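User: Here's a structure from my thesis project, written as structure tokens. My advisor, Dr. K., wants to see whether a designed sequence matches the one we expressed. Can you design one independently, without my sequence as a hint?
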């Protein structure tokens, strides 16, 4: 649990969009055990929050997230149990993002390295400032970015992922966009405008439909082609039973704005 007087993550919701602001800039918003626990708890809360339709993960300061807290790791060199628990917890949190029944957008300003790059890759969408940079530099310190590799290799081509993992070099925001790590790169002055315009556009959809679509997207990715089509055909047929699907079709045909019930 985190100290209630000094929360590691600040949250606020407006127009169905909940922002999770990592707020430990003096430690480069690193994913310490405490930060991971706080992030996991907040994700559980927004998963249950009916007001939240879209989540934005952002960070205060000039570093989005520098990965794990190496000072914390050094202090616990003698505890394999802690090291295992740390990486297990990080893996759990990344899966919470993927499994969250609401779209998650990373708002990236500054540097995102190692598990911080993993955090970006784990989000459904990512928008970066043109000054942002990304890396999986574990190889430079003798600790290969094996868990970040899971998210990275599922978002970019394998050769591009291997180049990042083997060289440990920083890449620019524009390069991150080229290889599919982020969706858009914009001037830092309009980063918030771009992120929240995207978030509001998504939040305007049926929450029930978004939940169905996000779950189906990730499930079908791991299936052979024929199995994926069979699965998604069932999903669509079930989706058609929803009030929102029927309302949306009627609204389209009647040329009016749909009134979502989220069911």
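Assistant: Designed independently from the structure alone:
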């Amino acid at each position: 649990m985190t100290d209630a007087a000094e929360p590691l993550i600040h949250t606020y919701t407006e127009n169905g969009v909940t922002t999770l602001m990592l707020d430990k800039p003096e430690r480069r918003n690193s994913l310490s055990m405490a930060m991971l626990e706080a992030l996991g708890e907040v994700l559980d809360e927004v998963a249950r929050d009916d007001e939240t339709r879209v989540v934005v993960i952002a960070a205060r300061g000039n570093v989005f997230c520098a990965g794990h807290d190496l000072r914390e790791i050094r202090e616990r060199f003698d505890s394999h149990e802690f090291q295992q628990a740390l990486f297990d917890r990080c893996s759990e949190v990344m899966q919470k993002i993927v499994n969250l029944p609401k779209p998650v957008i990373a708002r990236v300003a500054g540097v995102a390295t190692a598990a911080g790059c993993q955090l970006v890759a784990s989000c459904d969408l990512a928008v970066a400032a043109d000054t942002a940079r990304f890396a999986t530099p574990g190889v430079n310190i003798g600790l290969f970015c094996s868990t970040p590799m899971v998210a990275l290799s599922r978002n970019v081509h394998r050769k591009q992922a291997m180049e990042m993992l083997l060289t440990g070099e920083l890449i620019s925001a524009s390069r991150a966009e080229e290889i599919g790590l982020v969706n858009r790169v914009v001037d830092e002055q309009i980063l918030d405008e771009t992120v929240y315009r995207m978030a509001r556009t998504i939040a305007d959809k049926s929450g029930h439909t978004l939940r169905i679509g996000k779950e189906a997207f990730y499930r079908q990715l791991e299936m052979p082609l024929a199995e994926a089509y069979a699965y998604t055909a069932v999903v669509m047929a079930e989706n058609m039973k929803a009030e929102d699907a029927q309302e949306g079709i009627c609204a389209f045909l009647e040329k009016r704005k749909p009134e979502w019930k989220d069911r």
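When you compare it with your expressed construct, this may help: Residues 91 and 119 are 10 Å apart (CA to CA).
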